[in-house]
Amino acid sequence: MIAQITDWEDLNLMGGTANLYYNNTFVGQSQINPKQLNDTLELSLGVDKSISIERKQIDKLCTEKFIKSNRIIEKTWSIQVRNNKSSAVKLLLYDQIPLSEHSSVDVEFEAEG
């Protein structure tokens, strides 16, 4: 979970480690950096155990083919999100896309759904 705080410049925050509490229970620590240049301050709140996410590769949709001297590998992943809370939640989901360290390898992303 990430908290996004707008108008944070008016809060006179000091940089450093912040202790995080939820329902009067300590849940972890995050870093406050008031020197950031964004208009929205983002604080990591850790993992919400009431929301489960499963990411798995779908083998039957993965292909490998050769076109001339190029090898093309396509991989398909499924991401399933389950809200185990009794109320609705607003969720932004980000996935990591691999980057190539070799100039001869291109990585492209195609989103579905």
Question: How would you describe this structure to a colleague?
Answer:
With 113 residues, the chain is mainly β. 0% of the residues lie in helices and 43% in strands. The chain contains no helices and eight strands. The strands form four sheets. The chain has a two-stranded antiparallel ribbon. It has a two-stranded antiparallel ribbon with strand order 2-3. A two-stranded antiparallel ribbon has the order 5-8.
Describe, in short, the structure shown.
The chain is built from no helices and eight strands. The protein has 113 residues and is mainly beta. The relative contact order is 0.16.
Keywords:
113 residues; mainly beta; two-stranded antiparallel sheet; 0% helix; extended
Task: Record the SSE blueprint.
Layout (H helix, E strand, L loop, with lengths): L1 E5 L9 E7 L2 E8 L7 E5 L6 E7 L5 E5 L2 E5 L2 E7 L30
Antiparallel strand pairs: 1-4, 2-3, 5-8, 6-7
| N- to C-terminal distance | 23 Å
Backbone shape: extended
Q: Identify the strand order in the major beta sheet.
A: 1-4
Evaluate the radius of gyration.
20 Å
The succession of helices and strands, N to C, reads: EEEEEEEE
Low-confidence stretches: none
pLDDT averaged over residues: 86
* Strand segment tally: 8
Overall SS class: mainly beta
Largest sheet: 2 strands, antiparallel
Strand content: 35-45%
Counted by DSSP, the helix tally is 0
As a percent range, the share of helical residues equals under 10%
